[in-house]
């Protein structure tokens, strides 16, 4: 008879994969916090911070959510993944906009100081 639930080691494996796949996102979030604290509040820094937070949370939750598949069922699990993907997209978009504004300001300031 086939097992209805995954064994404990399989769940642990997915949780470990979730943590390892989130390390870069966590690093980006920590750097965003550092940048925000050192440079002060501005729209681009807020966008970087919120975007990186949203991406980090969605990455961790989507990577480790496989452990809940058994309890939720395929349809609910797919819905949760869909919501997490939308959240990750929004986070990436906010981060990219904040990054673009920051780069434009740096380039503009560099051009002013060179002239």
Describe this structure in words.
- The structure is a single chain.
- The protein is mainly alpha-helical.
- The protein has one domain (about 10-115).
- Helices cover about 85% and strands about 0% of the residues.
- It contains 5 helices and no strands.
- The chain has helices at about 10-20, 25-40, 45-65, 70, 75-115.
- α2 packs antiparallel against α3.
- The longest helix is centred in the C-terminal third of the chain and has 41 residues, at about 75-115.
- The model has no long low-confidence stretch (mean pLDDT about 85).
Concise overview:
With 115 residues, this protein is mainly α.
Topology overview:
Elements: H1 8-21, H2 23-39, H3 43-64, H4 69-72, H5 74-114
Helix pairs in contact: 1-3, 2-3, 3-5
Radius of gyration: 19 Å
Quick one: overall form?
Answer: elongated
Q: Could you estimate the helical fraction of the residues in percent?
A: over 70%
What is the ordering of alpha helices and beta strands? HHHHH
Counting DSSP E segments of at least 2 residues, the number of strands comes to 0
Largest sheet: none
Number of helices: 5
Strand fraction: under 5%
